[in-house]
Design a protein that fits this description.
By secondary structure, this protein is an alpha+beta fold. The protein folds into five domains: 65 residues, Single Sheet (Rubrerythrin, domain 2), CATH 2.20.28; 103 residues, no CATH class; 157 residues, Mog1/PsbP, alpha/beta/alpha sandwich (Protein Transport Mog1p, Chain A); 159 residues, Mog1/PsbP, alpha/beta/alpha sandwich (Protein Transport Mog1p, Chain A), CATH 3.40.1000; 113 residues, Nuclear Transport Factor 2, Chain: A, CATH 3.10.450. Helices cover 29% and strands 30% of the residues. The protein has twelve helices and 34 strands. Strands 8, 9, 10, 11, 12, 13, 14 and 15 form an eight-stranded antiparallel beta sheet that branches. Strands 20-21-22-26-25-24-23 form a seven-stranded antiparallel beta sheet, covered by helices on one side.
Length: 634
C-alpha cells in the first residue's frame, strides 16, 4: 500500500510510494531526476533534493499521470500539427470538388491556419520548460512540433500571399464590359469580360440551328461559353424550367439513377438553374485544347418569356475563368425569340425618330434614333412592346397599353420593386422619384458586381386613352443616371399628326438625332471610339452640302480612326490661328456648321492627335465637314 505521497521538485510529477522508501534515493518516473524520499508513513511533507549516486531502490510503483504544463504543451503542439495537416487536406479537397460552399471552405482554411499557429506556440512553450523540467518528452515532442508547425505555417503564408496576388490580378482584369450589338439576326446581347472575344461557331456548337453566340478567352485559357436562344412559349414557370434543365443535364450523367444537383441562379431579369459536371477521364491530366474537364449547363427563363440554354466549358470547377463566364451570362439580354426576324409591328422612322403606335390607341411614342438598333419585337400583351439597344450598353424597352390597365405609377413601381427584391433577390438602391419632362419617373441602381453597376429609370406617362411605360438602363463601371435622364427627355407621347408629333420627331435635332450640347457630342465620339463603330462615328458629322467626293474621303478616314489605340477624347477651344474659310483656285471651302471648338482624340502610340472642328447647325451639334462653293465672278 502506498503510504507516502509527494511531488518531484523538478517537474512537479505526483509520486506515491511505500514507507520502505524513506531515506532512499529514487529516480523521478517522469523526468528521471534523482531525489531522496523524506518523511514518515503517517504524515509526509516530502522534499526532494538532488543526490549523488547511491544504492538502487526496489522498482518504484507507477506514479500518477498528472503532468506539468510544459509536457501538456509539448503534446498539444505535436497534436496540433497533425490536426492542421488533416484540416488542410480536407479544405483543399472541398475546394477542388466544390462539394461545400465557399464560406465553409474559407472557414475550414481559417481553422487549419489557427490550429497550426497555436501548435507552434505550444511547441515553443514546451521547449522553454527544458531547463527546469529536463529533456524527457519535452525535447523530442517540442522540437518535432516546432519544426512541423513551422513548415506548415510557412506553406499557409505562402499560399495566402499567392492567393492574394492572384485575386488582385484577377480583379484588375474582371468586368471591363464591352456590350455586343443586338440585331434581328443576332437577338442575344452579352457584355463580354476583358480578355474574352466572340468565337467561331462550329457545326457541333449549334446542331439545331437556333440563334447562338460563342465566347472564348483571347489568351491561353481553355474555356468557352455558348449561349443559345430557344425561344418563347414552351416554358412558363420555374417548375417546367427545372424539368428542362434536368433533361439538359442527362448527357453528362453516368447512369439513369444519377441525380442532377441543380443550383439557383438569380438574374435581374429572369431566373435560372445550373449544374456542374466533371469528366473523370480528364481530371489530373494536362489540359487539351477544346477538351474541357468541367461542363456547366445553364437554363434561363427571362421575364419576357424567352428561354435560353447556355453551357460553360472550363478546366476549373470554380475560379477566375468560371466567374468571368458566369458574369457574362448574368449580363445576357434577349429580345424577341423568333429567329426568323422581328415580327411585324407598328414602327416607322420619320425625320430621324422612331415612332411606336398600337392598334386602338390614340397616342404614339417617339424615340430619337441616336444610334439605337431595333431588337425583335416582344410578344403582344394587348398593347405594343418594343426594345432598342445601343452599342455603349444603353437599353430602352417598354410598351403602350390602354389607360384602363394603368393603376398609378407608385403602385406599379411598388409591385415591381417587391418582385425584384423578394422574388429575385435583387437589391434596389439610390431610389429617387421625380418628374422628368412630363414623365413620372423613378431612378434606381442595381449593383451587378463590384466593378459593374446598372443605372435604371422607370417612367410612365398617359395621353388620352394611352398609357406608355418605358424602362431605360445603362450598365458600366460607374453610375450614369444623367445619361438616362437626357435620353428620357427626348422621348415623347403625342397624338398622331399633331404639331407636337412633328416637333417630337425633330426634338433631338436634325436627322440622326444629333446631340444638343458640345459635351453630348464629345460623349458620342468617345462611345463610337470605344465600340470601334465607324457607322456611329460617321453619323456625328453634318453631311449637308458635302460633295460625294468629300464623303468618300471622309468615310475612308472614319473607318480607320477607331482601329487605333486611343487614350482620351476631349473638348478644346479653337486654336488662335484657326481659319474657317479657305479659297483655292476659285473655290471657297468653308465648314457647314458654325464652328465653336474642337474635339480632340488623343492616341496612345504617338504624340499626335486628331482634331475635329465642331459647331451648331440649328439647335444640334455636329462635327464639321467642309463644303465647296464656287466664288462668284471667278
Amino acid at each position: 500500500m502506498a503510504d507516502l505521497k509527494f511531488s518531484c521538485a523538478s517537474c512537479d510529477q505526483h509520486i506515491q510510494a511505500d514507507a520502505d522508501y524513506i531515506g532512499l534515493q529514487i529516480n523521478c518516473p517522469n523526468c528521471n531526476h534523482q531525489l531522496v524520499v523524506l518523511g514518515s508513513p503517517t504524515s509526509v511533507s516530502a522534499t526532494a533534493a538532488s543526490f549523488g549516486i547511491g544504492a538502487n531502490p526496489p522498482p518504484l510503483p507507477t506514479g500518477a499521470k498528472n503532468q506539468s504544463i510544459f509536457h501538456r504543451a509539448a503534446i498539444a503542439g505535436l497534436a496540433a500539427s497533425l490536426i492542421g495537416v488533416v484540416a488542410s487536406v480536407v479544405e483543399r479537397s472541398l475546394e477542388q470538388s466544390q462539394s461545400a460552399g465557399r464560406s465553409a471552405v474559407l472557414l475550414l482554411a481559417g481553422v487549419a491556419g489557427l490550429t497550426i499557429l497555436l501548435g507552434l506556440i505550444f511547441s515553443v512553450v514546451a521547449l522553454c520548460g527544458i531547463p527546469s523540467r529536463g529533456t524527457k518528452r519535452l525535447l523530442g515532442y517540442g522540437l518535432s512540433g516546432t519544426i512541423l508547425n513551422g513548415i506548415l505555417l510557412a506553406f499557409c503564408i505562402a499560399g495566402f500571399l499567392g492567393a492574394r496576388s492572384k485575386a488582385i490580378s484577377d480583379q484588375k482584369g474582371l468586368q471591363q464590359l464591352m456590350p455586343s450589338a443586338t440585331t434581328p439576326e443576332k437577338p442575344i446581347s452579352v457584355s463580354t469580360a476583358k480578355g474574352w472575344k466572340t468565337g467561331a461557331l462550329g457545326p457541333e456548337d449549334n446542331p439545331q440551328g437556333f440563334p447562338t453566340e460563342k465566347f472564348v478567352p483571347s489568351d491561353h485559357r481553355n474555356a468557352a461559353l455558348l449561349i443559345t436562344l430557344i425561344g418563347k412559349g414552351q416554358i412558363t414557370d420555374l417548375a417546367a424550367l427545372k424539368r428542362i434543365h434536368e433533361l439538359s443535364c442527362a448527357p453528362f450523367m453516368s447512369g439513369p439513377n444519377d441525380k442532377c444537383e441543380s443550383k439557383d441562379l438569380k438574374l435581374s431579369h429572369g431566373s435560372a438553374y445550373y449544374s456542374t459536371f466533371e469528366d473523370p477521364d480528364l481530371i489530373g491530366k494536362p489540359p487539351v485544347p477544346e477538351n474541357y474537364k468541367f461542363t456547366t449547363p445553364v437554363d434561363i427563363l427571362f421575364d419576357n418569356g424567352n428561354v435560353v440554354h447556355a453551357t460553360i466549358f472550363a478546366d476549373e470547377r470554380a475560379g477566375h475563368t468560371f466567374d468571368e463566364a458566369m458574369m457574362m451570362l448574368r449580363s445576357c439580354e434577349v429580345y424577341g425569340g423568333d429567329s426568323k426576324g422581328p415580327a411585324a409591328g407598328p414602327r416607322a422612322k420619320a425625320n430621324g425618330s422612331i415612332i411606336i403606335s398600337a392598334p386602338g390607341l390614340d397616342a404614339q411614342l417617339t424615340l430619337p434614333r441616336s444610334g439605337l438598333s431595333a431588337s425583335p419585337s416582344l410578344s403582344d400583351l394587348g398593347g405594343s412592346q418594343f426594345a432598342y439597344s445601343r452599342r455603349d450598353g444603353l437599353l430602352i424597352s417598354g410598351w403602350l397599353e390602354p389607360i384602363s390597365r394603368y393603376g398609378g405609377f407608385r403602385k406599379l413601381w411598388a409591385a415591381d420593386k417587391q418582385n425584384m427584391e423578394t422574388g429575385m433577390g435583387i437589391k434596389i438602391t439610390n431610389e429617387k422619384f421625380e418628374d422628368i419632362n412630363g414623365w413620372q419617373a423613378v431612378s434606381y441602381t442595381i449593383v451587378i458586381t463590384k466593378d459593374a453597376v446598372q443605372s435604371n429609370i422607370r417612367a410612365c406617362r398617359t395621353l388620352g386613352r394611352t398609357w406608355a411605360d418605358v424602362h431605360l438602363s445603362f450598365t458600366g463601371e460607374k453610375l450614369n443616371v444623367d445619361l438616362l435622364k437626357e435620353m428620357l427627355k427626348t422621348i415623347s407621347l403625342v397624338a398622331p399628326g399633331s404639331n407636337k408629333a412633328t416637333e417630337a420627331t425633330t426634338a433631338a435635332g436634325l436627322p440622326g438625332a444629333a446631340p444638343t450640347s458640345a459635351e453630348q457630342l464629345r460623349s458620342e465620339v468617345e462611345l463610337a471610339m470605344k465600340a470601334k463603330d465607324a457607322n456611329a462615328f460617321m453619323g456625328l458629322f453634318n453631311l449637308r452640302g458635302v460633295s460625294d467626293k468629300m464623303k468618300t474621303i471622309l468615310s475612308q478616314m472614319v473607318v480607320e480612326v477607331p482601329k487605333h489605340e486611343w487614350t482620351a477624347v476631349k473638348l478644346a477651344p479653337l486654336p488662335a490661328d484657326f481659319q474657317a474659310t479657305n479659297e483655292v483656285n476659285g473655290i471657297r471651302i468653308r465648314p457647314n456648321v458654325v464652328v465653336s471648338g474642337e474635339i480632340v482624340v488623343e492616341f496612345g502610340e504617338t504624340t499626335t492627335a486628331l482634331r475635329l472642328p465642331y459647331g451648331k447647325n440649328g439647335d444640334a451639334y455636329y462635327l464639321s465637314c467642309p463644303v465647296e462653293e464656287k466664288i462668284p465672278g471667278l
